């Protein structure tokens, strides 16, 4: 859809850059009805309550084509619960769980033991590391960020697309860390996925013609922390940000008549790039 200013569909003489998040028709301030994410037109609001007559309002869809649900935070709650549950397990069991699930390319955890890591076929570490935390401040910051960024994206994208965005962002961060970092350098945490959500938020706000300054300031601040604080895997942050931004762009800018095809292709292409990066690095370490 063209994001340039056009006339409101009910008041053609009033230019606007805002569109209904359900039917994507342009709406002026007098026609905007606030929703969980963005604004809806009066007809879609009426259609959502069963009183509308516009055909596109009978099956309300989000801006990315997802269905509106009663609890737009469900997936975010599940992801947050998985992170916290694994953190509690780490506190209870100790370093053994961390050694089994954290990300590193190839290393001997103790002297005279076999090499372990992604290069040794333990590919699951690319995903399990994104749910793994040790320090209280680490998980607290990541989970607060997830709770702040996740629900609006989940409401705008729909559950399945949002989950795909989260997982691919986390894997993208792990893939870049695996490619660039030293083989024995461990990496863990949901930060790669969180940076992907941050990039996706910027894409969504741009798509809705909202003020970009707050999210840009937040992104710049987080990148400054990434490259100035010690013991931070900048590779995971940058990898998650790049993948999350790219995937979100494909999700929210897919043309309506080819939406499913473009969105599947976007997620598939991101996954193929991740797999290719992992394969290349594995061949390097094997050689």
Give a nutshell description of this structure.
The protein is mostly helical. It contains 10 helices and 4 strands, in the order E-E-E-E-H-H-H-H-H-H-H-H-H-H.
Q: What does this 3D model show about the protein?
A:
The protein is mostly helical. It folds into 2 domains: 6-57; 74-286, Rhomboid-like fold (Up-down Bundle). It has 10 helices and 4 strands, in the order ββββαααααααααα. A two-stranded antiparallel sheet has the order 1-2. Strand 1 and strand 2 form a beta hairpin. Helix 6 packs across helix 7, helix 6 (159-180) runs antiparallel to helix 9 (234-253) and helix 6 (159-180) packs parallel to helix 10 (259-286). The chain starts with 5 loop residues before the first strand and ends with a helix. The relative contact order is 0.12. Residues 49-58 have low confidence and may be disordered.
Number of domains: 2
Order of helices and strands: EEEEHHHHHHHHHH
Quaternary state reads single chain
Major beta sheet summary: 2 strands, antiparallel
Q: Can you count the helices?
A: 10
Gross CATH architecture of the largest domain: Up-down Bundle
Q: Report the β-strand fraction as a percent range.
A: under 5%
Shape estimate: elongated
Task: Give the spatial strand order of the biggest sheet.
Answer: 1-2
Could you say which structural class the secondary elements and strand pairing correspond to? mainly alpha
CATH topology heading of the largest domain: Rhomboid-like fold
**Nearest-angstrom radius of gyration?**
21 Å
Structure summary, number of beta strands:
4
Helicity, as a percent range: 55-70%
N-end to C-end Cα span? 48 Å
State the low-pLDDT regions, or none. Answer: 49-58
In the CATH scheme, the class of the largest domain would be Mainly Alpha
Q: How confident overall, as mean pLDDT?
A: 88
The CATH superfamily of the largest domain is known as Rhomboid-like
């Amino acid at each position: 859809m063209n994001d340039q200013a056009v006339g409101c569909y009910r008041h053609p003489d009033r230019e606007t850059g805002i569109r209904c998040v359900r039917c994507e028709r342009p709406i002026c301030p007098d026609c905007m009805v606030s929703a969980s994410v963005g604004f809806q037109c009066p007809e879609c609001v009426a259609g959502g309550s069963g009183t509308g007559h516009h055909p596109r309002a009978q099956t309300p869809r989000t801006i990315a084509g997802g269905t509106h649900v009663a609890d737009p935070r469900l997936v975010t709650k599940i992801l947050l619960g998985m992170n916290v549950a694994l953190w509690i397990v780490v506190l209870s069991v100790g370093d053994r769980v961390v050694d089994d699930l954290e990300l590193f390319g190839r290393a001997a955890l103790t002297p005279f033991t076999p090499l372990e890591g992604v290069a040794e076929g333990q590919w699951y570490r690319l995903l399990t590391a994104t749910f793994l935390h040790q320090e209280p401040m680490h998980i607290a910051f990541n989970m607060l960020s997830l709770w702040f960024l996740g629900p609006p994206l989940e409401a705008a994208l729909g559950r399945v697309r949002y989950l795909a965005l989260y997982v691919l962002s986390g894997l993208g961060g792990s893939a870049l860390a695996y490619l660039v970092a030293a083989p024995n350098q461990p990496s863990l945490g949901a930060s790669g996925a969180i940076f992907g959500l941050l990039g996706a938020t910027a894409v969504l706000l741009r798509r809705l013609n909202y003020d970009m300054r707050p999210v840009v300031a937040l992104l710049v601040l987080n990148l400054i922390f990434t490259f100035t604080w010690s013991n931070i895997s900048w590779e995971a942050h940058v990898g998650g940000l790049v993948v999350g931004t790219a995937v979100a762009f494909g999700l929210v800018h897919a043309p309506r008549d080819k939406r499913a095809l473009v969105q599947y292709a976007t997620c598939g292409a991101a996954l193929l790039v991740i797999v290719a990066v992992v394969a290349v690095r594995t061949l390097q370490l094997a050689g």
